[in-house]
Structure formats: C-alpha cells, structure tokens
Amino acid sequence: MSISKKIAHKAEAVKGRTKKAVGRVTGSRRLQAEGRADQVKGNTKQAAAKIRDAFEH
C-alpha cells in the first residue's frame, strides 16, 4: 500500500472525528452521524490496508 493512500485513509478518519465533534458542539445530529460514518469508513480502510500489508511481506 502506498504512503499516499495510507495518508488519505488517515485523513478520512480525522475528518470524521472533526465532523463528529463539530456536530456535537453545534447540536447537529446529522453532522454527528456523517462524522461517525466518515470515521468508521477511514478506520475500516486503514485496517484493510494493514491486513493487505501483512500478507504482502
């Protein structure tokens, strides 16, 4: 897995955490849910990349 893809996955998870926090502060349940979804998606992609890397070496 290339470094750029790893960074992109991490950035997606961080974006989700940020969205979730902003949603919590503003009281927007929609924004909180979107943030949670982005965070889960980024974390899932990171986990898949780690598994892929483990089998490549």
Protein architecture, described:
By secondary structure, the chain is an all-alpha fold. The chain has one domain (3-56). The protein is 91% helix and 0% strand. It has two helices and no strands. It has helices spanning 3-26, 29-56.
Taking the alpha carbons of the first and last residues, their distance comes to 11 Å
Task: Enumerate the spans where pLDDT stays under 50 for 5 or more consecutive residues.
Answer: none
Reported for the largest beta sheet, the result is: none
Secondary structure tally: strands: 0
List keywords for this structure.
single chain, 57 residues, mainly alpha, 2 helices, 0% strand
Question: What's this, in brief?
Answer:
The protein is mainly alpha-helical and 57 residues long.
